[in-house]
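ping. complex inputs:
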Amino acid sequence: METLKYWMMFVAAWMLWGCAEEDFVPDQYLLGLGGDEYVQNEVDRWIVENYTQPYNMEVKYRWDQSELDLNRVLVPIREELVIPVMKVVQEVWIKPYEQLAGANFIRSYSPKKYVLVGSPKYNPNDGTITLGEAEGGRKIVLYRLNWFDSKDRDLIQQIMKTVHHEFGHTLHQTILYPEEFKNITPGGYTTAWNNIDEEEALKLGYISSYACAAPDEDFVEMIARIAVFGREWYENKVAQAKKLYENATSAQEFAYDPSEALRQKETIVISYLKDIWGIDFYDQDGKKGLVTLVQEAIDYVTGDDYEQ
Amino acid sequence: MKKYLFFFTILLLLASCDKTEDNVFTQTPDERLKMTMEEYRETLLNAPNGWFLAIDTKKGGAYRLWMSFEEDERVGMLSDMEATFSKAGQTATMPCISSWRLKMLLAPSLIFDTYSYLHLLADPQGANNGGKNSEGLLSDFEFRIVETDNGGIDLIGNYNQCLARMDRATPEEAQLAVQGGLKQVIERHTAFLTENRFPTVEVEGKKYLMRPNYRETEFAYVDEEGELTELTVGSYLDFQGIVQADAQSNVCFFEPAEINGLHVNGLKWTDGRYWVEIDGRSYELVDNLVPPYPLNLGYNQTFSQLYVKPSAMVGTLTDPFMNEVYTPAYNSLNARTRAIQEMYCKFVMNTAVGKPVMELGITYLNTSTQKSYTAKWQYAYTLNDDGTITFTDREQTGSTNEFYYEMYMKELPDFFCGLEYAHYDTDESWATVEKAKIIPHTFKIDWAANRTQGLSGNIGGLYRVEREELYIAGQLKQ
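pong. complex structure:
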């Protein structure tokens, strides 16, 4: 038995001696290590200067299927449209927020990656198309950019609505809006939002049919639509809701006054932006608010003096 | 003792472990990939006159582009798209410059990463390429490289698995390409197709219709069960048709197509005609004048009607029919200020008898009132075992159009089934007419050659079996 002990010890010692520690030095060549490699062109340099260096943002315009849904047919953006699109994003999204919340605001909270796609994203079955998407507040995908024309105000508003919409998600994903927002019009949220037209949505107290999709969407639609289409547009919308309510033919048609619901939502949006982020949504004490700044920026980029 | 032996064995086993790695290759996979990518890069750049790239889209057949790759990952392109889709703009003469890259995806891939003529095909917006919204032509712009040392480069699309083929352009081809050659090649070939309506190849006694074409080559044949099989294979044209005088372009396939067990691999134009490459042998392609498979004309068949407009079918309606039947009838009716305009032979159901009949309609213009009228007859028929058809009797359909004027164009209704009358009084009606003799005629139903410039569609004919040169031809309708 004693001998066995010695044997065991000998074996253990021998096994320990057998262990050799080798430092792993990755001296091997690894293909693709360090990211995509490509010859930098003017567009790439512009992006580095205007997005990557100041805001640590990546703008991916070169095709990368792995950034996108694998089961949808999509094509890249036209190269010559990259700078014009991103310039408009700069003017209509970055600059207004910077002016109101300081340069660090965009640096801290902006999504870190923009992915630009040329074609719309067609959704199967329901015939709708998607114009933009955000992923966890870190990545924004913009679609249908090959249609871009800075003189086309409607189109600019469509694109910028998407940008503001997705950034709105980033904000509420960082700090959530008050729970009471979800209880203003709790009954109308539905996944079949695409079957609800704009007027029906308005009758239920939603700013758009997409706002019916979920409270989160409702919240960011409020911010994005009012900012991009303007306060006047919103006031008309509320007035229209009021009119529909007052002209109701039967008592069953409305469970509540939709214009009131919109007003409540608006109030929450205003106080949320002010209290949490220190941003004035509307003009305050002679200072321009977000809506005015965005409107002015849209006027500027669609104006005759603007150079793409 | 046993125990020691056991431990000793364990020790021996442990000591025999060899930790050194034994690699089949001297380099790591990444190093070898890098080398491969560099090889590919060199190959792509080593084409002073650029490349032709043909891609077999899933929905629109093959498209061909000319590409010039530059060191700085830029690529200039021209495309033959405008030849069939004018909304694309001047793709054959206006160069489009975008970017390319070699990237290690699942396999070393050649990718075109910004929008170009190649992406037009893959664009999900149907308005950009004629495809369906949400899919376009189901094409590709990222390709894995399959083969580089067979004269060109074989590629497969990463997304839709479209086959693609790259070939180096010669200086002459490159020069033609920048002058719009990609479009001219197609126009030149279109001329060939209008002259050769039913190109046919005969292999072991069986005839195959084979229409060599850009985008898609069409095949049609009757299989063992007697069923007509039609299929298409993506194909593209090389530049031979515009480089050489009096020549046509070779028609290239992406891979051999299997047609009824035969492996067909494109067509070559030599000695003034096309030769089809089938299982390593060349077969001549000849214009058959008519489709090389039987015609189904009749009640509830592929076609149920022959439409005959003699003024638009000069040459296709042949002399025996014109001289013996049509012209005499036309002249004698014309003497009554009525000019025959068009005719039809239609297989319809006669609900009164519960049997299908062949209805002959002759439309004539009253030249003084400028109004048109149609005279109609219905023919009872029997289908014979040998595939022929016999018209056994005919009846008028009760209008004065035929009752008053049959005698002035009798050659036409009599062509199918002759009648001699014992009593026929135009003051009375068809009901009081007495037939003295019925002369049935038997016909073979078959295709007829189209000999008229500008006449389109499928042409069929009814041939008198005892005199096959005597037949009526017309456009086939469903």
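Chain B has three domains: 41-178, 183-287, 305-477.
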